[in-house]
Amino acid sequence: MHVRAFDFSERLKGRESRMDLARIQVGPLWKLRPDLSEVVDDLLDVIAAVHVVDRLVRRSRAGGYTCPRHLTLTVPVAFPERCSAQRQPLTALLEWLTGDHWEIEFNGRLGRRRTRVPALLSTGAPEMSRPFVGLYSGGLDSLAGAVAQALDPQFDTGLLVGGQTGGGLKSLQSGQFAALRERLPQVQWRPFQGFWHQAGKKELADWFVQEQSQEKSQRSRALLFLTIGVITALAHDVDTLHVYENGVGAINLPYTAAFAGADQTRAMHPRTLLLMERWLTGLLERPVRILNPSLWRTKGEMCAQVAAAGLGDLTVLTASCDSYPLRHATHKQCGSCTSCVMRRVSLHAAGLYAGDAAADQYRDDLFRLTLQGGADRRHALHYMQEQAQQFACLSGPGRMVDFRLAFDGLEDARQAIHQHSGLSLPEVDTRLGRLFGQYAREVAGFSRDLTSPTPPVASSPLVA
């Protein structure tokens, strides 16, 4: 395994270091809370450096599988001893999330990382009554999750935060937030907090030229967004960040063996959230919680909550495609990747299929492809149908042992949920069985309508 090394303390022309050029821009937070500890600056720099390296080094493939990388990096920080003390939790998190071997060294940096904000110019954290802070992507799950929390009587104030890596994503998030604010006035919405980061591609051009092309998987991007979310929450004196991902998508059992390992995203996996929580709590020396309130719901059940609230029309504002925004003259989503297929299955299960179809958002229409052939673009659908049939057989009472043997990744989720939630393992097993059984029924219902001689214009909505 070839070792790749990157030193972010290296000085370039002038006085800037590579770390200066790769930073996440969070100036509004420092204006809001100039009293936040400088260890927060270190946290942001470490995650930014990890993300840059993750994008720089291409993964190699052998025998149809993606090979792990050996990555070493040096990061200048204000608190090298404190960061070094939390190195093991950090590398455990990175190795789980990316499937690679990481070695990280910390050395002291010169000067201050943050521009001082005079106390008189500080806006201060606003008073928020019974708030929730949610990580918002612009996808269907994030919209459904935000709606569910806004309707929850235990919350009076909502604050959504998102990472933005392009103008299209910024526009998508802003449009959805404006609609949520208008349609859910019972919640006092704080202004949407969006933070820009492009991994320093322009500023660190020599590194990118050296690598010739960038790695597309970007498994560490989830840590970038989670970090931004947690820091925003802490700046508003909230110690819990909520994330919005349906349970099947969060656990993300591989469709086939080829989808496992580095090819399998673990962004919102229960173990990712548990390991992230442990590292941040240790580094920041204060409690940090990252909760997924939708863990026990399918995407279809999340959409059913939106439909029951009379907000089903808002789903057309969201995007789910793995290739969003699609480089296509009239359609921004492909309609045939696994994310698009799950989106269509879920909207069908929630009784929202007709509105979704009328919006004409997809390059590939699954109904048309099924009638006219087009098997080359239905691979994701076939993978999903085969997996759902397995779930239907294995999710029944007393079958959890067989389920775990068939999908060894399920045990990681099972143990992480047990440790994080305090639920007993038998209770976790019962809930997992119900979750995957419900998902299997949703896929089966969608598949039946696909073979119907007429397009499904409506479906029986789930009970939210």
Please provide a brief summary of the model.
With 464 residues, this protein is an alpha/beta fold. Helix content is 46%, strand content 11%. The model has no long low-confidence stretch (mean pLDDT 86).
Describe, in plain words, how this protein is organized in 3D.
It is a single chain. The chain is of the alpha/beta class. The chain has 2 domains: 3-111 and 196-291, no CATH class; 320-450, no CATH class. Helices cover 46% and strands 11% of the residues. The chain is built from 19 helices and 11 strands. Strands 6, 7, 8 and 9 form a 4-stranded parallel β-sheet that branches. A 3-stranded parallel β-sheet has the order 1-4-5. Strands 2-3 form a two-stranded antiparallel ribbon. The longest helix is centred in the last third of the chain and has 26 residues, at 425-450. The radius of gyration is 22 Å and the shape is globular.
Strand-pairing-aware structural class = alpha/beta
Gyration radius, rounded: 22 Å
Total number of strands: 11
Helix count equals: 19
Low-confidence runs: none
Q: What percentage of amino acids are in beta strands?
A: 5-15%
Q: What is the 3D form?
A: globular
Helix and strand layout, with pairings?
Elements: E1 3-7, H1 18-21, H2 27-32, H3 39-56, E2 61-62, E3 65-66, E4 70-77, H4 80-85, H5 87-98, E5 101-108, E6 131-135, H6 140-150, E7 157-164, H7 167-183, E8 188-189, E9 193-196, H8 205-211, H9 221-235, E10 240-242, H10 247-251, H11 270-284, E11 289-291, H12 299-308, H13 338-349, H14 353-358, H15 366-372, H16 379-394, H17 400-406, H18 410-421, H19 425-450
Parallel strand pairs: 1-4, 4-5, 6-7, 7-8, 7-9, 10-11
Antiparallel strand pairs: 2-3
